[in-house]
Amino acid sequence: MTVQAVQLPGLLMPYPAKVNPYLPALHDEAETWARDMGMLSSGEVPSASRAIWTRSQFHAMTVDHLTACTLPDASLADLRLNHRFNIWALAWDDYFASAFKRTGDLAGALVFTARLHAFLRPEPGARSPEPENAVERGIADLQPRLFPPRLAHWRHGFNRALARYIDAGVQELANSRTGRVPDLIEYAQFRRESFAAYTAPYSVELATGARIPDRIRHTRTVRALLDAFMDYMGLANDIASYQREVHEEHDVNNLVVVLATSLGVTIHEAVHTAVDLVNARLRHFDHLRQSELPLLVERAGLHAGERAELETWVRGAGSFLSGLHSWYTEAPRYAPADAPFRGQRTSTSAVST
Fold first, then answer.
1. Mean pLDDT, to the nearest integer, of 170-194?
2. Looking at residue 300, which CATH number applies to its domain?
3. What letter would DSSP give residue 131?
4. Mind listing the pLDDT tens digit for each residue in 126-151?
5. Of 164, 217, 231, 329, which has fewest CB within 10 angstroms of its CB?
6. Does the residue 353 lie in any domain?
7. What is the pLDDT of residue 351?
8. What is d(CA 104, CA 131) in angstroms, rounded to the nearest whole number?
């Protein structure tokens, strides 16, 4: 039974959807950048030079809407930067699936991933290899742009997050080759890596200009808040992309499959359990935001400026999740016309805003 045959309850999303007013500026320039990087073919069939998408495939992904909805308050310059990063992340995902997952080429995937690591150089002015494909050209172009002086503190953390993302692709391929479905407890952590969720707190910072104050960044409460924030992203994506990943790409790395296998339940039951789990993670994020974070702020003695910065970041995180939800439920990449997500009412009653 596929997800399309299951009537899904609505995923919770209490945070209001907003769209960045600079959305119109992204559309044409995104195509230009993707074409310059070699990600787009000139016709409607990807070329032999390993272009990743046709023009129609590229625009059907509506990455501009993804960026504008997840970062509604970003400046135009910051929106453009994050937009190119989003395009690159999807380019990596689709290239890896086509070149290695569909062929089962683990040896080739290891070589490809090792080369990508060579482009993740946190030191200013570090030399990188000569790019050999669209994914390498994209990350080589992005690296010097990602770390302007005001974001210099990103250098090691952001590239570590990227390294975890690309390494997770190899593990996904290894699982699929052997038919090994990850254990449920293992998968929750792994999905943060394979979805590039560890980059998302940096994107919120980019959009809002606010950081989580250093004095509380490594506390239990903030770590739990970030975990719940990141879990919603990848686990909700698993529900939206089940048909694409499992039935088209024959992937075993999906929450619905993990639940069905770990709990010994049917796909129908696993889908509903997956929705319940994703909703629970969002409720936990909101509980931490409303109940535990204020107590932590008081105990830590944060001054007014730190409190305002934290509030701004947390609001930005809510907007980020709302934007992802909108993209999952509307983009053709994840919601074909007959998928149950499209046109369903989203529940907002269980989490307060």
1. 94
2. 1.10.600.10
3. P
4. 788 899 999 999 999 999 888 888 88
5. 217
6. no
7. 38
8. 24
Domain count, the chain: 1
For residue range 25-73, what is the model confidence (pLDDT) as tens digits? 998 889 999 999 999 986 554 444 579 999 999 999 999 999 999 999 9
In a domain? residue 275: yes
Supply 149's token pair. Answer: 């002086």
Determine the structural domain holding residue 287 and report its residue range.
Answer: 3-330
- pLDDT tens-digit readout, 67-116: 999 999 999 999 999 999 999 999 999 999 999 999 999 999 999 999 99
Taking each helix axis from N to C terminus, what angle separates 304-330 and 220-240, rounded to the nearest 10 degrees?
10
Burial track 179-193 (b if 16+ CB lie within 10 A, e otherwise): eebbeeeebbebbbb
Could you tell me the CA-to-CA distances from 91 to 98, 207, 299 in Å, in that order?
11, 22, 44
How far, in Å, CA of 157 to CA of 286, rounded?
25
Supply φ then ψ for residue 53, to 5 degrees: -135, 155
**DSSP classification of residue 98:** I
Structure confidence by residue, pLDDT tens digits, 208-262: 999 999 999 999 999 999 999 999 999 999 998 887 777 777 789 999 999 999 9
Q: Is residue 66 part of a domain?
A: yes
**Rounded Cα gap, residues 133 and 95, in angstroms:** 10
